[in-house]
Specification:
The chain is α+β, with helices and mostly antiparallel strands. It is 35% helix and 24% strand. The chain has helices at residues 9-36, 52-68, 98-103, 175-188, 201-209, 223-235, 261-270; strands at 40-42, 49-51, 73-76, 81-82, 88-96, 109-116, 119-126, 133-137, 142-145, 152-153, 166-168, 194-196, 215-218, 239-241, 253-256. Strands 4-3-5-6-7-8-9-10 form an eight-stranded mixed beta sheet. It has a five-stranded mixed beta sheet with strand order 12-11-13-15-14, with helices on both faces. A hairpin with a 2-residue loop joins β6 and β7. α1 (9-36) runs antiparallel to α2 and α5 runs parallel beside α6 (223-235). The longest helix has 28 residues, at 9-36. The N and C termini lie far apart (38 Å). The chain binds D-MYO-inositol-1-phosphate and calcium ion. Calcium ion (CA) binds at residues 54, 77, 93, 95-96, 98.
Length: 276
């Protein structure tokens, strides 16, 4: 922290470059293990999957963080939970989009975020199959690096009215919640252009940042699903928020360009998309 209480840009840069190194390294592990086969178990429901590679990727990330920064705290989807004393906490999704990973659908990612005193200040999301790497540091903008392309700054989606917006979303592993979620989508769909359900919340948020989706919303996410992607979308100039003036949370995470956001958020509020 600087003396005026704002995060120190040099510290953010250090965390951002480690986040990128970690996301790339774990993505390489995931890519190599996928080629060797998939070993899969179920978690909260029969549709909520975890693989040996989710666990190996998280183990690899935790080992690297502990070696490089032993004072930092860690929270990971597959059970990593480590207290720290530095004020930094790493929030990890070792594979976001595990169902796609199992199917071999190349839409999954390793997501790595660093919080400083509870605020996400750096994030990186890497798709092991495409090699696309999205990254951001608080106040420093968002960037993508795709194989054989130059690193480019992300500036968010095009400006379209609600009726022409293509909106990403996602559904819970719990069937009764899915029933309520699809009731919201049933009312939303006639009022927008179309829906996309691609299966990886972190990448969905990066797609909004990259202008490949006009907006995205989902209820019921966990911090590891959205921590890095939300920072990347925010740094690309998007509105990232919950509904009714609340911050992004497990209740609802929404991302849209500044022009579209007021109409989309008002509609999601009318549909009670945050109480499914
Ligand atoms: C899931 C994906 C999916 C979203 C789910 C998440 P996981 O994460 O991000 O797109 O709809 O809500 O749980 O389980 O593959 O890490
Ligand atoms: Ca996951």
């Amino acid at each position: 922290m600087t003396t005026d209480g704002t995060p120190d840009p040099d510290q953010i840069a250090v965390l951002q470059s480690l986040a990128v190194e970690l996301a790339r390294g774990a993505a390489e592990l995931v890519r190599t293990q996928r080629a060797a086969g998939v070993q899969v178990w179920t978690k909260s429901t029969v549709t909520d999957l975890v693989t040996a590679t989710d666990r190996a990727s998280e183990r690899w990330l935790v080992e690297r963080i502990v070696a490089a920064r032993p004072e930092d705290a860690i929270l990971g989807e597959e059970g990593a939970e480590r207290p720290g004393s530095s004020g930094v906490r790493w929030v990890l999704d070792p594979i976001d989009g595990t169902v796609n990973f199992v199917l071999g659908l190349p839409q999954y990612a390793v997501s790595v975020a660093a919080e400083l005193d509870g605020v996400v200040v750096a994030g990186a999301v890497c798709n092991p199959q495409t090699g696309d790497l999205y990254e951001a540091g608080l106040g420093g903008g968002a960037f993508v690096e795709r194989p054989s392309e130059q690193r480019t700054r992300l500036t968010g989606p095009r400006s379209v009215p609600l009726g022409q917006a293509v909106v990403g979303t996602g559904f819970s592993y719990d069937a009764s919640r899915r029933r309520r979620q699809i009731a919201v989508v049933a009312q939303l769909l006639p009022q927008i252009a179309d829906i996309r359900r691609m299966g990886s919340a972190s990448l969905d948020l990066c797609q909004v940042a990259a202008g490949r989706l006009d907006a995205y919303f989902e209820a019921g996410l966990s911090p590891w699903d959205y921590a890095a992607g939300a920072l990347i979308a925010a740094e690309a100039g998007c509105v990232i928020t919950g509904l009714r003036g609340r911050e992004v949370s497990g209740a609802l995470a929404a991302a849209a360009g500044a022009d579209l956001a007021p109409d989309l958020l008002a509609l999601l509020e009318r549909l009670d998309a945050d109480s499914v």
